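Narrative summary of target 7.
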Amino acid sequence: MIPLYYHEDYRKYSFGTLHPFDPVRFPRFRELLRGKEELKDVFEIKEAVEATHDDLSLVHTMNYINKVYKMEETGGRLSGDTPVKKGAPAAARRIVGGTIQAVIDASQGGSAVNLGGLHHAGKDYGEGFCLFNDVAIGAHYMVEKGKKVCIFDTDAHQGNGTMDIFYEDPRVLFVSLHQDPATLYPGKGYVHEIGKGGGSGYTINIPLPIDAKTSDYTYSIKEIVEPIVAEFSPDLIIRNGGSDPHYSDTLTDLGLDMCGMEYLGAVTKMMAEKNNSGHVELMLSGYGPRVIEGWLAILKGAFSLDIDLPSDKILSSPGELPGNKVDETIEEIKDMLNSYWKL
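Modeled conformation, tokenized:
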């Protein structure tokens, strides 16, 4: 069975009743899984432990960690969209703990899932609904054990915190497909952002235009992601990102349908199998009415689940040619990276 980490305290990861991040997603997804008889022997739902301060300090400064806890007591915001509410830091530690457990489970070539993905928190800052960066902490945990890690970030918002943490680290390959940063927070993730120093070439940003569809994703992944991941040959692939590339998302403007969401999971699993890598799925993001449906579609693809996808418009197929000048972006990325990778 595939371990899926969860804890009732995840729902305490909250920013207030009017905030776009609704923590009810966590128990609703748990109930969705419980209600599907065909999944009862697929996932083993395991209780996430709470990460320690030492775990957090793998990527965050102690000054920042202490700032978060002080702000919980005094009130305040890490950024305009990220207030620190009572109970949220402990819930974040629980999410971090679930990701650490997932990467440990997957590190021997297996697979695991956690409802995590707080990728906007950097070493000494928090923003974008993210207090602590579980994606980076999980990756660093494996790097400390001598493993090479690929973070494949498919969230519609570029993972600026994760990128910043590993920008000079060649042990972590950070690959992000995201909405054009000129049109969406956090305004980072342009093609020229490729890493620095020893990490040059190990950050790959693939910005996609508004309304990018499955055909745009499949072309980008086939031309850039698959060959670089194969050459890097990671011990572990962490795919991060929930349902916000779906066309119904209320904060983003991409154009994936549910079949496209399924593809994101399936192509990650395919790359892991080809490279004999462990495989972790992190799925926290998504806004609007179809968040948990998108999560289920990703898991269907990642684990070849025998379930029907939610009804949806079919917006494009993987075999179609890319549109919106995606092919020009891909050629620009190849020119930028061909001295680092065989493209």
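The mean pLDDT is 96.
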